[in-house]
């Protein structure tokens, strides 16, 4: 459990403290996720809701691995890509999906820690493996849909120059553009809100443990 706590601290620094991930934090995060996935396979780790959330958090680094491996393949073997704009947008959206999934799951872990600290008995029926898996699944579905919308918007922007002004695709382009812009704004403000909420939760937990 000490290793899992260190992993959570690393992820909190990577996604909720740093303004943007750098090469060092990304590399350490990938190593930590790999170690965590291996650790959670051990029979010594009990299957609890927190373990389910942490497992899903570790798997959220898969898009980062896909992005890094793709860039390495292109750079190493000098692979020619027919649609550079599409590929670069896809890799960027994968990184965005990773950040959003990680922030949401970290907030779920913080909220569960809050319930364990202040409402251990009353919240026992909420802190179940089934609910943790359901929460993780919902987060993955929502962020995947967000990533698909961003990718569609980027693809339509790339092809908008060659599309006729009165083409039926213009309506789809404007709708996706407005939806993506609105979602990006909501994601930005939600990220700020999650940072504030997480700081408040651990502030309350820290002083509660200190008083005890």
UniProtKB/TrEMBL annotation:
<feature type="domain" description="G-protein coupled receptors family 1 profile">
    <location>
        <begin position="32"/>
        <end position="212"/>
    </location>
</feature>
<protein>
    <recommendedName>
        <fullName>G-protein coupled receptors family 1 profile domain-containing protein</fullName>
    </recommendedName>
</protein>
<dbReference type="InterPro" id="IPR017452">
    <property type="entry name" value="GPCR_Rhodpsn_7TM"/>
</dbReference>
<dbReference type="GO" id="GO:0016020">
    <property type="term" value="C:membrane"/>
</dbReference>
<feature type="transmembrane region" description="Helical">
    <location>
        <begin position="97"/>
        <end position="119"/>
    </location>
</feature>
<keyword id="KW-0812">Transmembrane</keyword>
<keyword id="KW-0472">Membrane</keyword>
<keyword id="KW-1133">Transmembrane helix</keyword>
<feature type="transmembrane region" description="Helical">
    <location>
        <begin position="171"/>
        <end position="203"/>
    </location>
</feature>
<feature type="transmembrane region" description="Helical">
    <location>
        <begin position="12"/>
        <end position="38"/>
    </location>
</feature>
């Amino acid at each position: 459990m000490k290793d899992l706590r260190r992993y959570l601290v690393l992820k909190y620094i990577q996604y909720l403290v740093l303004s943007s991930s750098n090469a060092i934090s990304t590399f350490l995060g990938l190593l930590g996720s790999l170690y965590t996935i291996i650790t959670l396979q051990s029979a010594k780790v009990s299957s609890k809701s927190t373990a389910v959330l942490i497992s899903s958090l570790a798997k959220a680094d898969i898009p980062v691995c896909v992005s890094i491996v793709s860039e390495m393949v292109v750079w190493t073997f000098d692979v020619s890509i027919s649609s550079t704009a599409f590929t670069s947008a896809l890799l960027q959206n994968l990184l965005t999906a990773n950040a959003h999934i990680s922030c949401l799951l970290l907030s779920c872990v913080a909220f569960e820690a809050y319930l364990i600290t202040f409402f251990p008995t009353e919240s026992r029926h909420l802190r179940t493996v089934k609910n943790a898996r359901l929460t993780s699944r919902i987060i993955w579905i929502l962020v995947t849909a967000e990533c698909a919308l961003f990718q569609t918007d980027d693809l339509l922007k790339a092809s908008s120059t060659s599309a006729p002004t009165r083409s039926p695709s213009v309506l789809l382009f404007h709708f996706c553009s407005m939806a993506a812009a609105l979602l990006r704004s909501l994601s930005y403000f939600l990220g700020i809100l999650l940072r504030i909420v997480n700081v408040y939760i651990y502030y309350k937990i820290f002083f509660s443990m200190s008083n005890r």
